[in-house]
Design goal:
The complex is a heterodimer of chains A (about 120) and B (about 110). Chain A is mostly beta strands and about 120 residues long. Chain A has no helices and 11 strands. The radius of gyration of chain B is 13 Å and the shape is globular. Classes of the chains: A mainly beta (about 120), B mainly beta (about 110).
């Protein structure tokens, strides 16, 4: 149980375009989803926290207009990188918590974004 | 505020040797503690967690960790390393009592030498 999927697993886009990454909880309802960014050989950096049906809470230094997060249902959250630039290239990981175990996060497999 | 310190960004052990990955934390309230493993280009997989109760917790793949409040530590161990254990390991802490943001350590890359 407690499986989280991400799509796509890898994406290459051109500079200036936008790309959407989906995060789905497959077998539980995710009241809260988190989006992380991981630079090579570094730890995870929390970008934002989203609760179903409400606006995401962004961490300091994260541009909310550039990284659009939508959590429209209890099983789906999306991260859209708008007007992507090469410096946005990174590994993006989502996680989700359920209603019964609020402290345990279940992680998706990650999405490798490359902006050319 | 809470923080996590992982001593040693790289650890090398021989196959069959003891694995010891160190984690120290600071938290103003009793924490929940986690160890995650990450293989290249993959997400994080939970190895084990401590919330309450027994301070020695056993996880998957033969790993275990002991919560030592007096030392504010939660070191990860495995008696005998296997080649498949080569990966990045992250210690993480969350405040007890419900939903809170997770704070991750900087990670330790484990290399297993044949």
């Amino acid at each position: 149980g407690a499986v989280v999927s991400q799509h796509p697993s890898r994406v290459i886009c051109k500079s200036g375009t936008s790309v959407k990454i989906e995060c789905r909880s497959l077998d539980f309802q995710a009241t809260t989803m988190f989006w992380y960014r991981q630079f090579p050989k570094q730890s995870l950096m929390l970008m934002a926290t989203s609760n179903e049906g409400s606006k995401a809470t962004y961490e300091q230094g994260v541009e909310k207009d550039k990284f659009l997060i939508n959590h429209a249902s209890l099983t789906l959250s999306t991260l859209t990188v708008t007007s992507a630039h090469p410096e946005d290239s990174s590994f993006y990981i989502c996680s989700a918590t359920g209603t019964s175990v609020s402290y345990e996060q279940y992680f998706g497999p990650g999405t490798r974004l490359t902006v050319t | 505020a809470q923080s996590v310190t992982q001593l040693g960004s790289h650890v090398s052990v021989s196959e069959g040797a003891l694995v010891l990955l160190r984690c120290n934390y600071s938290s103003s309230v009793p924490p929940y503690l986690f160890w995650y493993v990450q293989y290249p280009n993959q997400g994080l997989q939970l190895l084990l967690k401590y919330t309450t109760g027994a301070t020695l917790v056993k996880g998957i793949n033969g790993f275990e960790a002991e919560f030592k409040k007096s030392e504010t530590s939660f070191h990860l161990t495995k008696p005998s390393a296997h080649m498949s254990d080569a990966a990045e390991y992250f210690c993480a802490v969350i405040k007890s009592g419900g939903y809170q943001k997770v704070t991750f350590g900087t990670g330790t890359k484990l290399q297993v030498i044949p």
